[in-house]
TrEMBL record:
The chain crosses the membrane at residues 28-45. This is Tetratricopeptide repeat protein. Keywords: Membrane, Transmembrane, Transmembrane helix. The lineage of its organism: Bacteria, Pseudomonadati, Deferribacterota, Deferribacteres, Deferribacterales.
Amino acid sequence: MVRKKKQPVQEVPIDKVEDFMLQNYKKIVMVVGACLLVFVAVYTVRQIMAVSSAKADSEIGTTETKMALGSANAESLAAFKALADKKSASKNYIYLKAGIIEANNNLPDAQKTLSAVNGELGELAKGLAYDLGARETDPKTYITSGNMKPLWYYRAVLASQGEEKAKLLEEFGAKYPENELYDMVKRWES
């Protein structure tokens, strides 16, 4: 057998990555520096916003506590409602809490304040306004779509008359037979 002659291979130490790095060193440093600068700027802005949000939350809590301890008056409630502009994410909570405080202190604007509540707390505010005498809220609308259906059934039964009352009471009993509100209204109606 004949052996093949080995041809000497000349090794060239060219590494493509090293070559790229050497040719584009300044560009790479600038891109990495810019990315770092953007990251630091975004982080700083987020921290400033978090501090501002925490300060607004603290102010809301402090004002709410002061009013709950008995120092609620028209001026303090107006200042509390003004906090809704500072933190719009808490607007519904602020108006609900202000409405509750107004209702507890027999202030006249409770129903108006509660009508400004929307979103997840809207049903709770509508229920409280209904209990305070706001009759523009129809309990039957919340029987099918509300989260507090037994309470709305209870209110609907109490607000209805005649055959409609009997029908609602029967429906209420079929859907929530173990509910205490059903037991109470059934006792009253029998």
